[in-house]
Amino acid sequence: MIVVFDAQCLLCNGWVQFLLKHDKDAVFQFASIQGETGRRLLATAGLKVSGLETLLLVDGTQTWQHTAAILRVLHVVGGAWRLAWAAWLVPAPVRDAVYRFVARNRYRIFGRSAVCLVPSPLHAERFLT
Prior knowledge:
By secondary structure, the chain is of the alpha/beta class. It contains 5 helices and 5 strands; from the N terminus they run E-H-E-H-E-E-H-H-H-E.
């Protein structure tokens, strides 16, 4: 499974760091929207880098966006994080409206890095360029 994320967004970087810590089975790989693989995956899903307001999760030919991507990831991570699955009870338009609001304002709220996330040597093989 590939998580496509904005490597300049501090919230997104925090999400990736969370996954590196909690993904004990190393299920996830990561591709930044600033890299060739990330851009290709976005294009395949019909998304553009400019104005992007979603995290993209790719599993073979299936993709998930917005809160569906987050909930799917947390389900795969397992353990107590599977309890987040209860958020499916909230209608997607409501969940995704909140998600898009945060995504639109992510740089203002959480900050932006001038440089992309550089993975540690321990995790470098999980990052696609």
